[in-house]
Amino acid sequence: MKIAPGKGIKRVAFRTASATVFTLRSCIQKLIEDGIIDNEGTPTKKQMLHLSPKMIAMSADHLGSTSLGNIKLQKLKDFKALWHPVGIQLVGLLNRVLAHPPVACFMSHCGWNSTMEGICNGVPFLCWPFFGDQMHNENYICNVWKVGIGFNRDERPLITGKEIKTKLEELLENGKYKAKVLDLKERVTNCIKEGGSSHNNLKHFVK
Fold first, then answer.
1. Residues 193-203 pLDDT 10s
2. Structural domains of the chain, count
3. What is the pTM of this model?
4. Do the Cβ atoms of 83 and 19 come closer than 8 Å?
5. Is 85 part of a structural domain of the chain?
6. Helices (H), the chain
7. C-alpha dihedral over 173, 179, 182, 186, to 10 degrees?
8. C-alpha closest to that of 84 among 163, 176, 14
């Protein structure tokens, strides 16, 4: 990236991350100016944020775990990231495991790659996010797409074996989660086919 400008070469970054990550990066300076985060990327108070009209609200508490505090990255100049929703053909080991017929659900940390792998294989989620955009991805999985269930922590706060058993039984006994993820799988698959929106976005990106 540093050498390219001197050689007259255009720079483009391609990363398989959710739109949330890129939206956050583009909003860092405004979040600081509005007093939502400090210069280290730490939220100043509890509140819900709408970073984009097309995104659901996210908690400011989750911003502190998205690595926003790198000032050097915030001040990079002459570089613009353009996000296109694109479909990637998944061929990894996890993808082969999820495609196996006996797999009934996916206990996931809700990283974006794992989210796409679960959806593309039509497998409902048990969500256990840790950091970054994972909490926001969980929000989409559970509350927008409704293809999974999250866990509730107790007063310690821990996720108990009983809580895992309860949510697992709910996920497997209620057919709506499987039905919804299969419907979402079909829509995603159509997007990455030739002529689909993700296929066209990838062609545009390459051009």
1. 899 998 898 88
2. 2
3. 0.76
4. yes
5. no
6. 19-33, 71-74, 93-98, 112-120, 134-139, 161-173, 175-192, 197-206
7. 180
8. 14
